[in-house]
């Protein structure tokens, strides 16, 4: 498998007999074993199970049977998805003595039924609490575009593995930006579907009222195909992009942007003939409400275990979870009341527009040894503030596609395309138009990294 081989290309090579599924999986496993040392995207390989599944696919082809659509395509899962026979650790050592999972997570089951083969678990922030994939137990995942920089989080291992060309797609989860932030910083496609659309069964929870499972891919077609496989539905017709009303989010979402991102946004709006700019009300409060709900629900989930095993948690994770558990119930209820109001306001916007455009992150990936970003002219913690543009849009449960921008003259930058619940097809249509115009696409690694 070469870098950026698509899932479609791999499946076609196996279907036509140009490649065997076993050879694809062997090559993928070898790549992960020999090339991931500097990136640290992988936490565990499923070599035996993957090769066994590949052998079954090759036997099906040799018997003349029709192969499923993703036959032999390797993929990785964020280390919070259940894989039968393995302990789900959720990026922590706290769960290492738990019994192995009895069955695969539901979306993993659906992908395997379509022929795809899970080959690895991928690194993440402990218990998905973070935007950096700096993990005290399993190491820091580095950005394949510049190993001195963050990959983003909490699904950083998944984004990095796709960006490095190790895997054509990978699974992640998104509570406050954990798919969108690493997709943006690593220059790959990412999708946070409508809240509740994809089943979360078998994915270790963080914040029950915000968690969404989704994926990363090296091509838009792969992102769309795997989305509908995980959804268990027939692909919906995409509306023509030129019939959709597209607006840019201004105000909060127009501040603190790198000049390269401002220029890229202008090119995108010009290509889509978008002249409308709209603003959301009380965005700062929406971000705060999202943060408080996450902290309270995460803290409540972990409190019984913290009482017994607090010393086993990463101190940074532990302290935030304890703080969340100590929030008064009135604060949580007030945040949820605000959430209902904010959801109503954003739904009013979708009566006048179909797709919103917003930046995913304000600029390129921060340095690992200087983890700050500039907000309102001051350096602030990157780990605490990379979600500036993603957290407010988590609150209403909307589908968001993170689109990698091309030819920005910088390290990877990404945009969020946002639609009303259930309208993923509209996002795919706009993304396809931008890809065809040459403005969007998976960002290749620089030659020195490719060597």
In short:
The chain is of the alpha+beta class and 451 residues long.
What does the model show?
The chain is an alpha+beta fold and 451 residues long. It contains 15 helices and 17 strands. An eleven-stranded mixed sheet has the order 1-3-2-8-10-9-16-17-13-11-12, with helices on both faces. Helix 9 (283-309) crosses helix 10 and helix 9 packs antiparallel against helix 11. It is globular and about 60 Å long. The model has no long low-confidence stretch (mean pLDDT 96).
Topology overview:
Layout: H1 7-16, H2 21-35, E1 42-45, H3 47-62, E2 74-78, H4 106-113, E3 117-122, E4 134-135, E5 139-140, E6 142-143, E7 146-150, H5 156-163, E8 169-174, H6 180-186, E9 189-192, E10 212-217, H7 220-231, E11 246-249, H8 259-271, E12 276-278, H9 283-309, H10 315-325, H11 329-349, E13 355-359, E14 372-375, E15 378-381, H12 382-385, H13 391-394, E16 400-404, E17 414-419, H14 424-436, H15 447-450
Parallel strand pairs: 2-3, 2-8, 11-12, 11-13
Antiparallel strand pairs: 1-3, 4-5, 6-7, 8-10, 9-10, 9-16, 13-17, 14-15, 16-17
Helix pairs in contact: 2-3, 4-7, 9-10, 9-11
EC number: 6.3.5.6, 6.3.5.7
Keywords: Ligase
Protein name: Asparaginyl-tRNA synthase (Glutamine-hydrolyzing)
């Amino acid at each position: 498998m070469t870098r950026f081989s698509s899932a479609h290309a791999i499946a076609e090579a196996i279907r036509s007999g140009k490649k065997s599924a076993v050879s694809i999986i062997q090559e993928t496993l070898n790549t992960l074993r020999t090339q991931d040392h500097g990136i640290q995207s992988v936490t565990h390989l499923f070599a035996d199970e993957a090769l066994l599944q590949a052998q079954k696919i090759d036997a099906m082809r040799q018997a003349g049977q029709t192969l499923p659509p993703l036959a032999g395509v390797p993929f990785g899962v964020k280390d919070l998805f259940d894989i039968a026979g393995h302990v789900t650790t959720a990026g922590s050592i706290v769960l290492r003595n738990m019994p192995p999972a009895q069955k695969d997570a539901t979306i993993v089951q659906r992908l395997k039924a379509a022929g795809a083969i899970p080959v690895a678990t991928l690194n993440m922030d402990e218990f998905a609490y973070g935007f950096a994939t700096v993990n005290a137990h399993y190491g820091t995942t580095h950005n394949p575009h510049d190993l001195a920089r963050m990959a983003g989080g909490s699904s950083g291992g998944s984004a990095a593995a796709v960006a490095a060309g190790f895997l054509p797609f990978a699974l992640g989860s998104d509570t406050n930006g954990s798919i969108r932030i690493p997709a943006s910083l690593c220059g790959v496609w990412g999708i946070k579907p409508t809240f509740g659309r994809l089943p979360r069964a078998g994915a270790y929870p963080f914040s029950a009222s915000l968690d969404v499972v989704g994926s990363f891919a090296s091509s838009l077609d792969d992102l769309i195909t795997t989305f509908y496989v995980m959804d268990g539905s027939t692909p919906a017709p995409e509306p023509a992009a030129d019939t959709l009303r597209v607006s840019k989010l201004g105000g909060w979402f127009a501040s603190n942007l790198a000049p390269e991102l401002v220029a890229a946004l202008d090119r995108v709006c010009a290509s889509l003939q978008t002249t409308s700019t709209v603003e959301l009300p009380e965005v700062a409060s929406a971000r705060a409400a999202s943060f408080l709900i996450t902290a309270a629900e995460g803290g409540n989930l972990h409190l019984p275990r913290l009482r017994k095993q607090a010393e086993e948690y990463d101190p940074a994770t532990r302290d935030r979870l304890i703080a969340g558990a100590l929030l008064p119930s009135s604060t949580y209820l007030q945040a949820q009341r605000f959430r209902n109001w904010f959801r109503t306001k954003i739904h009013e916007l979708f009566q006048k527009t179909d797709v919103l455009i917003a930046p995913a992150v304000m600029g390129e990936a921060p340095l690992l040894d200087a983890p700050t970003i500039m907000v309102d002219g001051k350096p602030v913690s990157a780990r605490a503030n990379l979600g500036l543009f993603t957290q407010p849009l988590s609150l209403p449960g909307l589908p968001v596609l993170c689109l990698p921008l091309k030819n920005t003259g910088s390290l990877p930058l990404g945009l969020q395309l946002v639609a009303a619940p259930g309208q993923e097809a509209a996002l795919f249509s706009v993304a396809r138009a931008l890809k065809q115009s040459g403005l969007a696409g998976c960002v290749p690694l620089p030659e020195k990294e490719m060597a």
